[in-house]
Amino acid sequence: MATAGKGEGIYNVVVIGAGTAGLVTAAGTAGLGGRVALVERHRMGGDCLNYGCVPSKALIKSSRVLALMRHAGLYALDPAGAAVDYGRVARRVKALRARIEPHDSAASFEGLGVDVFPGQAVLESPHAVRVGDVLLRTRHIVLATGGRAAVPDVPGLSEAGYLTNETVFEREDPPGRLLVMGGGPIGCELAQAMARLGARVTLADRGGQLLHREDPDVADLLKRQLERDGVRVLLRARVESVAPGQGGPRRARVRQEGESGRPAPALEIEADTILIAAGRRPNVESLGLEKAGVAYSARGVAVNAYLQATRPNIYAAGDLCGPHQFTHFAEYQARLIVRNILVSPLLGLGRARADYRVVPWTTFTEPEVARVGLNEKDAAQAGVPCDVHRFPYADLDRAVLESEEIGFAKVIVARGRDTILGATIVGAGAGELIHELALAMRERIGLARLSSMIHVYPTFSQAVQRAADACMRTRLTARARAIFSRLYAWQRRLV
Predict the structure, then answer these.
(1) Could you tell me the pLDDT band of residue 444, with boundaries at 50, 70 and 90?
(2) What global pTM score does this model have?
(3) Which of 29, 32, 230, 266, by CA, is between 20 and 30 Å from 91?
């Protein structure tokens, strides 16, 4: 059989979007021998490489090193008051991103056997995708177009100008007086990093706490740390309007609610730069979803447990369909889709259902905030009977030795048992430590076994073991203790 040329014949899969979900789907299917077309209208690598995880973590690292230099006195060293050249930091971020870019390039994927098409993809039917003058015919379609920053409707904001995660890392001028709108992970990470790098930062969030998905004690600890780093945090705060600067700073009118719910007098905040970090919106526009019979809403494309849209040969993954907006979550969904597309002709035998019970995530502030499964707030709202076992970093030898005593490990278990329902770790290395608990949850390993497992001393991972030890101590009832006491007494009489 003659091999069809690029854009000709029938593809097994046409993938729309070259972010994490799209790249993993394309590479996985091609690696298994499938014929794949990949369409991207903008930049290969998507949000994570270009505007998200990669540049933000590079920027955060520079800010952490600077903070460490300034606090060298904690380690009996002379503090170093290094001057900040923000442009130099920004250029390092771009250079590191450029080092990683080849992994996600069109040339790299063409080398894997994927046909890459730059341009806007439009579905013309459930089995046809048009890219410019090229019509791609396919058995399956995977929608992986991601999302973008949600920009609130604030009078004067557009005229004044603002940055989002898609533009902030391109800028080499220092932000000066920075107003961050939004106290979620992106807002908190960048507010702290920019403050450490010399910006005068105000963070305004409409909620009553930062990181609204986390427990209040987690949010309160992070708020205190941000304030120590110089961030002015305004909660229950709404930006009512922005006046463009006429050769000077922008002026934002911000109104806070008091604890009683009554609005306080409006604040006027001068800002050289405004950064929007107020959530995300899925990219569902201009795809021709209606023509292909794909149901969607402002929240994204609707999918079933197999990640199929309302047309069973069309799948969706990543920020486009949620429910979580993480790079690692998009990769997980893409791997399921690769498997399900491969076995779909076999009457669905061997298909995999998405399982979202064990999804870890991390906010890369300092201290880091890592989470998997239920927290106390979720358990209370769902009426789940549970016990909470907590171990503070201040009692952890490695944390004391490294002057990293801010934080704690907190594990939620089924009441009266050691079955792990969720965990939150706040502190140094939290993003690494959470995986032990995530694996234990997935494999149904109880805290008793984590307590008995040998952990290297001294390490931060002992925080998990110590929380497990706390659980084991609660299982020693007064009756059991009385029995053991009599047993010990009997042993002494044998001497």
Answers:
(1) very high
(2) 0.93
(3) 230
